[in-house]
Design brief:
With about 350 residues, the protein is α+β, with helices and mostly antiparallel strands. The protein contains 10 helices and 13 strands.
């Protein structure tokens, strides 16, 4: 029998945390999923701290009897505003997915959407069997989303060295700065740059996702990372007026920096077609090697339609590891699915 248990429930004992940790290790072993916690205690402390800092966040495991076989997280940012944005994150260990666990997931997601008055959510699924789960729900399949990895042993160093040698000379009006976390003088400008570049990402189908980053978001996330031995280093490009025109940022665990997540690399629209994304990504890779000797690889997700960044990544040496999709899941999709599964 499949059930759901939330990780902050009083009955979620240390034994469940150990099994939860083992599940993530298995996901890493089978599918190359990113997982940085080195002990189950670290996983516990980070996850409980994360949901505590969020206004609306529910994290849970999927159980087959007492065995942890998957996880889900439901989170809403900027709830109650025009920028409200709901997301689902989930993975199942076994690629052979029983219909009963899909129904269990649907029931819990419907309950959470009703609880928070949420009519639709967005999700990204890397693995084919997770894409199939959302297709069973009847979710709208949107942009093709690919996962790439770049190992230090496979990086095209001559390309990176060339970019770092030539592009700065061609853009003498800009300077590059590296920060573990953004200084106060840049936070407002950074929030606007992230919002703009996220909303301007190429897409095959309109996701209807109101991406928005506020100064409060940046400060809250920065504080959480300081308290949880994590970091989000940023390479920023700054013009002569000290305005931000480009960013590349990553996320990593300071206790286990072997695999780093390469997040947004974005350039302000009036500064594009000057090779600045190449400069940013090359500088970030070089900085990771310099600062973290144990660093081994970068992982990134990108929409298949984002040809400019895909070309840059291919030149650097990134390799495709998974082909997935983005989905929009609406409350009525779950209602229709559940009415058929009774």
């Amino acid at each position: 029998m499949f059930t759901v248990m939330h990780i902050n429930h009083p009955d979620f004992t240390d034994q469940y945390w150990r099994s939860y940790y083992d599940m993530f290790v298995e996901l890493r072993n089978r599918y190359g999923a990113m997982f940085s916690s080195v002990t189950w205690e670290e996983l516990r402390d980070r996850q409980l701290s994360f949901i505590k800092k969020e206004d609306c966040c529910s994290s849970m495991v999927l159980l087959d009897g007492d065995d942890v076989v998957g996880w889900m997280q439901f989170i809403i940012s900027h709830r109650g505003t025009t920028n409200e944005n709901a997301h689902i994150f989930t993975e199942l260990v076994d690629a052979d997915v029983p219909p009963a666990i899909v129904t269990t997931m649907a029931n819990e997601l419907a309950r959470l959407m009703d609880k928070y008055g949420c009519s639709k959510t967005h999700t990204m699924a890397e693995l084919e069997h997770m894409c199939d789960v959302f297709r069973q729900f009847g979710a709208e399949q949107l942009c093709k989303l690919d996962t790439f990895k770049l190992h230090r042993d496979n990086v095209n160093r001559s390309v990176i060295e060339d970019w770092l040698d030539t592009i700065p000379q061609q853009n003498a009006d800009l300077k590059l700065e590296f920060f573990d976390e953004p200084p106060d003088r840049y936070i407002e400008n950074l929030a606007q740059l992230l919002t703009d570049t996220l909303r301007e990402m190429p897409e095959e189908h309109d996701t209807g996702t109101p991406f928005h980053v506020s100064t409060d978001d940046i400060r809250r996330q920065t504080q959480w990372r300081k308290e949880n031995n994590s970091a989000a280093p940023k390479v920023l490009l700054v013009d002569n007026d000290n305005k931000l025109v480009g960013i590349s940022n990553v996320f990593l665990s300071l206790t286990n920096p072997r695999e780093v997540y390469q997040a947004m690399t974005g350039v302000r629209s009036d500064y594009r077609r000057r090779g600045l994304a190449k400069w940013l990504k090359a500088a970030m890779f070089t900085e990771m090697e310099r600062r973290y000797p144990k660093f081994e690889k970068l992982t990134t997700n990108m929409r298949a339609v984002n040809e400019p960044i895909r070309r840059i990544n291919a030149q650097m040496g990134y390799k495709l590891v998974h082909e997935g999709f983005e989905f929009t899941l609406r409350r009525e999709h779950l209602e229709q699915y559940l009415s058929k599964s009774v």
